[in-house]
Amino acid sequence: MADGHSCEGNHSFEVLRTANQTYKGVDFISQEYEGIDFLVIEAKLPAHGLSATENWCRDYQNLCAEYGKRPTGCGEDWAVHGGRLSHAGRIRCVSEYNSDPYINNVLGCDPSSRVAAVENLAFSAGATSSTSFGFNGCDSCHRGIYESRYSLHSTSFGSDGTGDRTVYTVCTGSAGNHSFEVLRTANQTYKGVDFISQEYEGIDFLVIEAKLPAHGLSATENWCRDYQNLCAEYGKRPTGCGEDWADEGGRLSNEGRIRCVSEYNSDPYINNVLGCLWASRVAAVANLAFSAGATSSTSFGFNDCNRCQRGIYESRYSLHSTSFGSDGTGNRTVFTVCAGYAGNDECATGNGGCAHFCVHTQSGHRCTCQRGFILMADGHGCEGNHAFEILRTANQHFEGFNFFVIKARLPGHGLSATENWCRDYQNLCAEYGRRPTGCGEDWAVQGGSRSHAKCVTDYNSDPYINNVLGCYWMSRIHHVANLAFSAGATSSTSFGFNDCNRCQRGIYESRNALHSTSFGMDGTGDRTVYTVCTGSAGPCPTLTPPDNGVLSPMGANSHNDEVTFTCNQNYELEGAPSVKCQANGTWSDRIPTCTRETVFF
How far is CA 357 from the centre of its chain? Predict the structure, then answer.
């Protein structure tokens, strides 16, 4: 306490069961329920019904944090911005009380009956929906447990102090900033430090053996950030493709690899010793350190950071590679390395003066910006080139044409980041190497309306889409969006270019240019919107299989066609496992090669 002598708790729960009941090797009850690992707690409420902190929501957060976990309850459909049933109270549980919503929605919302089901699997204790709780809506957090019954839903402890004081709840996730369970660092000293350090071809790497969580989900927004945080825990940086591939101006660089450096602080200055798509070489480093039987399918580093996702399987081209499958099966034990500079790092002080990302370079540092922003002339600040908050993307074929579909959120103030929303829409599509679109050639090329043609001449709209969207075409874009997302898009929340004489900074004032959205002039209405981008598709060169390998499908070379490569037995892929035909008529990456596997004894 403030007197410096006494102690006060940070929650009012009297925990009844944790010790002496071991499951999965820990000293508390852990129960896997529908593929999610929960920490299950039986506790008693105080007779006075008052929280130890400002409210019971904070007490629940602190209870879980005591075990290195997070509170939970309503899943992402209810508690994440953009969720189909979300609202501010449920989102607040995540933003203010660190609730973990990424539990595959297995507890529903309200969560009480399913929490009871988890409890009874763990304890066979007679837990009921009136004595079991998780987060529901955090607008009703109070010091009194009865007054908090809609936040911690639910308990039977009454307003008059009567009722059942024994309650059950669950925690999940990790209170940390990554989901890796580190298996080996301590008690194995090399080069005078308390973790495994292995020099490989003149570069010092920190080598880590870790276990992935059973649910396969990252603790942060994606596994790339988790990998960055894992290395930062040891004062290091993640790494992977070297400067030939991942540094701006590198002879083999591309945007996805550069993004690993600019956004996730990957260290590319490793003399290119790991190559690129380099799982076999990190396995070599791990086996030098551990003699552990690491393989190319259980060893990873950064490859393409345009593929960063919350699911480990979906991130397999970013953290390349792991054998953890889309069905939750496979090897959860993985190996990776970290690198970096032990000396002065200009980014360590005040983020190097950078507004977004500071990148350590051999000569000092440079600033970069997150997607949707550009570096200002001062070399430090970032300014947005569009005001859309991107929620989801997908490729969708519609009436013989390929579209890139985007679900996004408009800003609360309704203002564009550039001179108008037409330019913002152009920049949004350009971020993915695409063009905006809308009215087809019958309306928007020479001989059509000037207002439609201006979308082409001033904002790079692609009219050559076989007129499949018509013009004044919101009804068709929502069909494309629903094919891609099954998301409930409507004609009043779906837009493309119509009349570019009406481009304004206000979204309401631009309603006839970006037609149409339901976001009103008074700032009310639906801020979630759907749109499409496209491009002029030129054929890409026809590919042939690599030596000692095959490709599929043969002969594919149209815009958005994807070709996948595999190697014959005893050969290993060096390079991208798949390439896509881009709108400019080039493949998205170099064609890989198949090299004979290295066998470790």
Answer: 17
CA–CA separation, 483 vs 27, rounded Å?
48
- Residue 485 token pair: 């997302």
- Write out the DSSP string of 150-202: TTEE-----TTS-S--EEEEEEES-SSS---EEEESTT--BTTBSS-EEEETT
Helix (H, G, I), strand (E, B) or coil at 495: coil
pLDDT of residue 74: 92
Residue 31 has pLDDT above 70, yes or no: no
Q: In angstroms, what CA-CA distances link 18 with 41, 118, 412, 501, 544?
A: 7, 15, 45, 67, 60
Q: Are 171 and 63 in contact (CB under 8 A)?
A: yes
Environment class of 52 (CB within 10 Å of its CB; exposed 0-12, middle 13-18, buried 19+): middle
Query: Can you tell me whether residue 83 is helix, strand or coil?
Result: coil
Please give the structure tokens belonging to residue 206. 């920190």
Name the pairing type of β-strands 299-302 and 333-339.
parallel
Torsion (CA) 511, 516, 517, 521 in degrees, nearest 10 = 20
3-state secondary structure 6-49: CCCCCCCCEEEECCCCCECCECCCEEEECCEEEEEEEEECCCCC
Alpha carbon separation from 229 to 55, 223, 276 (Å, rounded): 31, 10, 21
Please say whether the dihedral angle defined by the alpha carbons of residues 568, 572, 578 and 584, taken in this order, is positive or negative.
negative
For residue 223, name the pLDDT band (cuts at 50, 70, 90).
Answer: very high
Q: What tokens does 314 get?
A: 């979906």
* Residue 24 pLDDT class (50, 70, 90 cuts): very low
Say if pTM beats, i.e. exceeds, 0.70.
no
* CA atoms of 135 and 117, how far apart (whole Å): 16
- DSSP category for residue 506: B
Q: What is the pLDDT of residues 548-598, one digit of tens each?
A: 888 888 777 765 678 888 888 888 888 888 887 765 456 777 788 888 865
Q: Decide: 152 and 187 in contact? Cβ < 8 Å.
A: no
In tens, the pLDDT along 166-182 reads: 899 998 866 567 888 88
Radius of gyration of the chain (CA): 27
Residue 15 burial (C-beta neighbours within 10 Å; 0-12, 13-18, 19+): middle
- Could you tell me the two tokens for 568? 């014959």
SS3 of residue 303 by DSSP: coil
Beta-bridge partner residues of 531: 406
Three-state DSSP at 550 gives strand
Place of tokens 């600019």: 262
Whole-number Å distance between alpha carbons of 491 and 495: 8
- The span from the CA of 257 to the CA of 282, in Å, is 17
Give the DSSP letter of residue 265.
Answer: -
Q: How far apart are CA 320 and CA 326, in angstroms?
A: 15
Q: Residue type for 189, please?
A: T
CA distances from 365 to 11, 302, 362 (A): 44, 20, 8
Rounded to 5 degrees, what are φ and ψ at 276?
A: -150, 140
311, HSE (Cβ side, Cα atoms, 13 Å): 10
Please say whether the dihedral angle defined by the alpha carbons of residues 54, 40, 314 and 91, taken in this order, is positive or negative.
Answer: negative
Residue given tokens 């707690």 in the structure block: 41
Q: d(Cα 289, Cα 75) in Å, to the nearest integer?
A: 40
Report which residue type is found at 564. Answer: T
